[in-house]
Design brief:
With 308 residues, the chain is of the alpha+beta class. The protein has a single domain, classed as Jelly Rolls (Sandwich), CATH 2.60.120. Helices cover 21% and strands 18% of the residues. It contains 7 helices and 14 strands. Strands 4, 5, 6, 7, 11 and 13 form a 6-stranded antiparallel sheet that branches. Strands 3-10-8-12 form a 4-stranded mixed sheet, with no helix packed on it. A hairpin with a 2-residue loop joins strand 1 and strand 2. Helix 2 runs antiparallel to helix 3 and helix 3 packs parallel to helix 4. The termini are far apart. This is Putative dehydrogenases.
Amino acid sequence: MATTTIDSPASPLTSSGVVLDQSERAFGRLRPSMDVVDDAAALRRRMAEDGYLYLPGYLDRDQVFAARGEIVDRLAEAGHLAPGTPPMEAVANTATTIKFAPDLAKGNAPLHELLYTGRMMAFYRHFLGGEVLHFDYTWLRAVSPGKGTAPHGDSVFMNRGTTNLYTAWVPLGDVDLDLGGLIVLDRSHKLDEIKRTYGARDVDSYCENDVDATRYASGEKWWNGALSDNPAELRRQLGLRWLTTEFRAGDLLTFTLYTLHASLDNRSNRIRLSSDSRYQLASEPADERWVGEQPIGHGAAGKRGRIC
């Protein structure tokens, strides 16, 4: 199904510092799926077709702002916000370079209530058709002005369990094009060659016979999981379109393990807040790096050596 175009902002959109082609053939708007939110079979068909579901306004906006409030208070206390500005606006201190901040999710009761109870868990039980397990690790992003996230798929970070695993990207506040939200490469989950090659790699796997094996084993050195550092060239090579929208607090964007995505650069003076959380059927195997009271994540305990 064709997606509508996005009105061009005053200046070109960029991702990873690269100007994106905003012509209709290269760039468009995410398709909303609230029209089928009560029909699990229709949701599964649409996910299979598009590789994502965009549900504007599905989550409780007040809950989102409660989670945001806890986060900005911590950011202010740590000196990441501009002095004298309202914390809820998350205006960045010009000296801050914060980007990935999972510690802001720890002990954050409002955020955990938003992501792991209520409407979020009800959605995944409905969509997956059974009891749901969520990863215990929460990927919290507090992206200061500058470059966004490079194009990647989630499989390279969490493919040791079921492939029937879904990411929930949640904007923790309103995110316009200048603040720089997520962009999804339309129907990229159907690219079998990329799934078979790039998508089968594991960022925590390393060659034991490599000269830098000990550095990889300790986590001192590792591959960052990016498919490309040039989202414009990647799109051109694959012949697909980048899709996004101006997100609002309460929106939910969920996508497959193989859906390629990135983010727009943050061209504002604010910190962009969002979370990534993961959900699967409880009956299927889970990646051991991301579950338990103290998930091992990408630490040394999660590394796997192999002979190359």
